[in-house]
Amino acid sequence: MKVLKKNLADEVTWQYEGVELSRDENSITIEAFFNRDDLPFQNIVLKRNDRFVETFYTDKWYNIFEVYDRDDGKLKGWYCNITKPAVIEDSSVSYVDLALDLWVSADGEKTVLDKDELEDLGLDEGLMAKIFGGLRELELHFESKNPLK
User: CA–CA separation, 101 vs 67, rounded Å?
Assistant: First the structure.
């Protein structure tokens, strides 16, 4: 399964391969492995070959990546991209990244990321409402259950 990250001009800015784990009418979950050099991030280090379980939705304005450590398999947290709804095809999934992100650590601490990048996009009010609606939905998702389960 090919994953295509796109910008607002619908141009591919990053792509990688993953394995489909499950699919339903409105979502797909794939497994992929972090393919960049080790990178300090928030209170963790994203390591080359960390396991990502990524869920993309055709009816939501975000995706959710569960991040597991390559060495001990422990959950590090959830990286959530605010995006336009995903396009899921037979052998690929693509999404348009809308800059704003939410990081939820394994202990449930939430951090909104890249507000400055979002402002730089100069988006109209309608799209901004969708973006912040997606963020609110994600925040509620992680408050309505214990994120460690």
Answer: 15
CA dihedral 122, 132, 103, 30 (to 10 degrees): -90
The encoded tokens of residue 119 equal 């402002």
**Alpha-carbon span 39 to 48, nearest angstrom:** 8
Q: What letter represents residue 45's amino acid?
A: V
Q: Which fold is adopted by the domain 2-143?
A: FomD barrel-like fold (2.40.380)
pLDDT digits (tens, 9 = 90+) for 52-94: 999 999 999 999 999 999 999 999 999 999 999 999 999 999 9
Instruction: Give the DSSP letter string of 47-110.
Output: -TT-EEEEEEESSSSEEEEEEE-TTT--EEEEEEEEESPPEE-SSEEEEEEEEEEEEEETT--E
Domain ranges of the chain: 2-143
In terms of pTM, does the model score above 0.90? yes
Distance CA 3, CA 19 (A): 10
> What does the alpha-carbon distance between residue 120 and residue 111 come to, in Å, rounded to a whole number?
19
**Residue by residue, what is the 3-state secondary structure of 13-53?**
EEEEECEEEEECCCEEEEEEECCCCCEEECCEEECCCCEEE
